[in-house]
């Protein structure tokens, strides 16, 4: 039944109860007033008539005058019309008969008067009894009315009470259940259902709610199934990757590790999942060596799977968008950390290829050096007058071949140096040495070049400099390389300042030129292998290895190398080495 109908029936029932109560009250008021009316109107009037008749007889002496008789007759006539009780009629008839005789007789007989009086008394007694009886009846009606009305009142009160107690619950109960259900759905509990078992509007609402929850459940499950299969796919990919991968949550507990990581770190997935990483590092040295030193540039050499492998350690913070419904139901978006992933990239293959390349370059450059040197010797012999004079063209050709030969020798020796660095075969011969000696050696080497370009080499060095802790050859090589670059990129007739100064347990060597300078965007990349500033390549020859080798040499000696430059103002290349 619909709530609307129920409400209508409920109110109709209340209305009927009120009407019933009112009607009962009205009925009993009517009954009581009717009884009272009868007492007043009939019996009371009769008593009045008889009292008047008796007074006429008592106050006048027989024989009665005519007007007394007339008055008596009037009262008697009224009484004859007002007969209500059983026996009253007979007594009134006898009064009439006696009065009729009394009116015709004179003098009147005392028996007649006596008879009239006796009958008047009978009439009075009958009416007095009737009054008493009717009063008792009225009283009982009042009692009955009081009883019935109080019963009806109690009944109406109880009905209203139960209505007012039950009615709010009847509406609010299902609403509360509905509210709870909606809250559960809001908390993603899509298995929530409402069972109202009712055929009304609440039943319809419950059916619609259940249908909605079912659809949401289906949707969630289908999404979940999709997500699960995607998760499985990603997990399989991660599992089968060559690189070792360890996933950590924001509390640094292990979320997952793949097969490669298990092998490399000698860990068991089942044992370590959920464990805080700092606990594992206590008993796993390899793990300890990579945690905290993430993103180290040097490849990590690890012996796993019965062979040596090289790994590059990378650590990535995982930041995910934070979508959170706050109390105002507004969406707040920000990025929150969801942990990090540590990847040990397997670079063994690249490392092997790189090594092969370095060895190849080392062999080639080494093998080239011998024929090149013999070509150089032959060229010197060609220039010897004793073998035969060369004409000017031939001399020009020989000098060209000689400079090309020098270049090739320089390139092959640079390649050899680099391959030495790359294969880890760099041998340093460190000793405490006077920095001015290195300076002189380097200046001597480039003097001829400088003279040709008419570039002035200025030396700025304080006296009493401490000795430097370095490999003389390698440091001189670097200084020569910097000076050659400075000469190469200086204008003719300009100058180059070579300085050395002591600064906090370090000696700083600088080569300052006044050439065109280097654009800031290239400055960081100058020390990379094979890097050359794009526009320079066509005009100036070079390999792009000089600065890279210089960096390796200086860093191998615990030093630093850097550049300061501005376009149009020239460049200053410096390196610092520890004081000896
Ligand atoms: P390269 O053999 O080409 O000189 P380097 O590693 O010595 O190789 O230098 C790399 C590049 O840096 C050069 O190609 C050049 O463009 C730039 N460079 C080096 N020194 C200077 C300098 N003093 N002034 C301007 N550019 C320079």
From TrEMBL:
Q: One GO CC annotation, please?
A: plasma membrane
One GO term of the biological process aspect? osmosensory signaling via phosphorelay pathway
> Where does the protein end up?
Cell membrane; Membrane
Show the GO MF annotations: ATP binding; phosphorelay response regulator activity; phosphorelay sensor kinase activity; protein kinase activator activity
Q: Ranges for the HAMP domain?
A: 169-221
PAS domain: from which residue to which, for each copy? 230-275
Phosphoprotein listed as a keyword: yes
Superkingdom of the source species = Bacteria
Alphabetized SUPFAM superfamilies for the sequence: ATPase domain of HSP90 chaperone/DNA topoisomerase II/histidine kinase (SSF55874), HAMP domain-like (SSF158472), Homodimeric domain of signal transducing histidine kinase (SSF47384), PYP-like sensor domain (PAS domain) (SSF55785)
Q: Which Pfam families match?
A: 4HB_MCP_1, HAMP, HATPase_c, HisKA, PAS
EC main class here is: transferase
The UniProt record lists the keyword NADP:
no
**Record field: transmembrane:** 7-29, 147-167
Enzyme Commission code: 2.7.13.3
What is the protein's name according to its record?
Answer: histidine kinase
Source species taxonomy:
Bacteria, Pseudomonadati, Bacteroidota, Sphingobacteriia, Sphingobacteriales
């Amino acid at each position: 039944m619909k709530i609307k109908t129920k409400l209508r029936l409920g109110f109709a029932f209340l209305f009927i109860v009120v009407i019933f109560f009112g009607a009962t009250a009205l009925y009993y008021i009517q009954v009581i007033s009717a009884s009272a009316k009868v007492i007043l109107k009939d019996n009371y009037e009769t008593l009045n008539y008889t009292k008047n008749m008796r007074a006429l007889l008592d106050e006048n002496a027989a024989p009665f005058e005519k007007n007394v008789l007339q008055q008596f007759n009037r009262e008697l006539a009224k009484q004859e019309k007002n007969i209500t009780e059983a026996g009253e009629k007979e007594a009134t008839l006898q009064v009439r008969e006696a009065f009729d005789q009394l009116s015709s007789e004179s003098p009147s007989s005392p028996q007649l008067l006596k008879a009239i009086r006796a009958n008047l008394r009978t009439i009075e007694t009958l009416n007095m009894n009737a009054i008493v009886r009717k009063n008792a009846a009225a009283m009982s009606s009042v009692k009955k009315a009081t009883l019935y009305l109080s019963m009806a009142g109690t009944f109406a009160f109880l009905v209203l009470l139960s209505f007012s107690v039950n009615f709010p619950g009847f509406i609010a109960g299902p609403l509360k259940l509905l509210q709870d259900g909606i809250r559960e759905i809001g908390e993603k509990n899509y298995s929530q259902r409402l069972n109202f078992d009712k055929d009304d509007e609440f039943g319809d609402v419950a059916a619609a709610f259940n249908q909605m929850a079912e659809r949401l459940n289906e949707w969630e499950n289908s999404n979940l199934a999709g997500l699960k299969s995607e998760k499985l796919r990603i997990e399989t990919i991660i599992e089968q990757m060559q690189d070792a991968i360890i996933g950590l949550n924001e509390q640094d507990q292990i979320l997952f590790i793949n097969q490669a990581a298990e092998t490399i770190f000698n860990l068991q997935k089942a044992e370590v999942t959920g464990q805080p990483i700092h606990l594992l590092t206590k008993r796993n040295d390899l793990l300890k060596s990579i945690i905290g030193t993430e993103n180290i540039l040097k490849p990590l050499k690890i012996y796993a799977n019965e062979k040596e492998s090289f790994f590059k350690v990378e650590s990535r913070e995982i930041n995910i968008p934070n979508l959170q419904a706050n109390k105002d139901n507004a969406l707040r978006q920000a990025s929150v950390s969801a942990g990090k992933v540590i990847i040990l990239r397997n670079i063994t293959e690249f490392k092997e290829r790189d090594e092969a390349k370095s060895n190849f370059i080392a062999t080639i450059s080494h093998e080239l050096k011998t024929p090149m040197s013999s070509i150089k010797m032959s060229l010197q012999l060609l220039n010897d007058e004793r073998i035969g004079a060369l004409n000017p063209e031939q001399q020009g050709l020989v000098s060209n071949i000689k400079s090309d030969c020098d270049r090739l020798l320089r390139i092959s020796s640079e390649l050899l140096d680099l391959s030495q660095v790359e294969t880890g075969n760099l041998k340093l011969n460190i000793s405490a040495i006077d920095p001015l000696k290195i300076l002189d050696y380097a200046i001597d080497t480039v003097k001829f070049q400088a003279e040709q370009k008419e570039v002035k080499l200025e030396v700025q060095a304080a006296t009493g400099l401490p000795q430097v802790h370095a490999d003389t050859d390698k440091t001189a090589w670097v200084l020569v390389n910097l000076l050659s670059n400075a000469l190469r990129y200086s204008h003719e007739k300009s100058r180059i300042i070579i300085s050395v100064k002591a600064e906090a347990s370090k000696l700083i060597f600088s080569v300052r030129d006044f050439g065109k300078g280097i654009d800031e965007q290239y400055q960081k990349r100058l020390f990379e292998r094979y890097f050359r500033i794009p526009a320079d390549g066509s005009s100036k020859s070079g390999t792009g290895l000089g600065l890279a080798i210089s960096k390796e040499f200086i860093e191998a000696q615990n030093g630093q190398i850097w550049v300061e430059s501005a376009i149009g103002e020239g460049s200053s290349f410096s390196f610092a080495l520890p004081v000896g």
